[in-house]
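User: Structure tokens for this complex, please. No commentary.
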Amino acid sequence: MKHQQYETWILLGTELDLEQHRELQVHLKQCSQCQSLYQATHQIAHLFKTSPVPEPSPGFSTRCMTRIEKVETRKSQFILGMTLSVISLATLLLLSSVGLQIRAGMAQFPQLMLEMITLVAKWIVFLNQLSHIVSPLIRVSLKLISPIWLITLGFSLSGITIAWMIPFFKSRTIQRELHS
Amino acid sequence: MCNTEQQWIAAAKTGDKDAFAKLVEKYQRPVYSVCYRMLGTPTAAEDAAQEAFIRAYQALDQYDISRSFATWVLSIASNYSIDQLRKKKVTILSMDNEKHAWLAPPDPGPSPEKAALQREKLGQIQSLLTDLNEVDRAAIILQYWHDYSYEEIADTLDLSSSAVKSRLFRARRLMAEKWQKMQLPSTAPVNSTAKRIAHETSTI
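Assistant:
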């Protein structure tokens, strides 16, 4: 048999039958290269098996769970921030379109852009601050307030919003009629 | 996998953090051990092990309950460690004794001689692992310390069984060559462990 086959047996730790084992032992007596390879692999295996198992320092699971908690909080804050950003952007677009309609022809375009940018920056700062206040409030309120109260609150807020929007749109209609 | 563990996993999947904490408690040692062998320092190992558990928590929905949780989480830890090594974000495998600080616990554990011997052994091991590439190293770690079969290693590292065999063959050859060099007389002061192991194995 070729020398390479014995090397493969040694390096892969192949399970050998009795005949193969005897054959390998005969070869090892004749080949110093294979013998030192055989010894080295056995010594390494022994070193690995007898080495101490590394253990994490005490309190690992607590630290790990704290980190998971932090990651989760950051994730929920990010989602809330993104939602608020989208809503605020939509609101800004709406407001700016209304503003553009009203101020068409009156203000110069660069000045208007500057004002818009300032407005956007202020909104972003405001919403960022708001998210810091609102997110824990929401978390706490979801745990404290029962779903019935939350639904009631939602309906109330919707009612107030509608009640506010109806006269707003009515006044816009009157304004248009007056202009025409 | 025992019923209790399945219950923990099921509960953790619904967002029960206490149940997941129990899984962390149970698997912290093997996960940390893989990360430590891969990255070589307690700090990097702690960070990688925590990251592995975070990733496991976030991917619990994708976890197939028919598969072993240990294999799954070790796969995450191994692959994360491989990525870290590839990014070269960690300075790996130092033989500095300070970096094996976990071997000297505050309680009266191993005697100073035993602790010193353990540190020396660890130094030898990390030195042997240093020359291996990341995937070969992971394969060696999983085989020697976790008794994984070729198929399990292939499954964990997303390789074919034949690729695992050839990687282990190459890795063992490299380690054997390095071990032989470490036993040369010119490097004798560093290699007292190597000699001791040689003596121990010759008597077995």
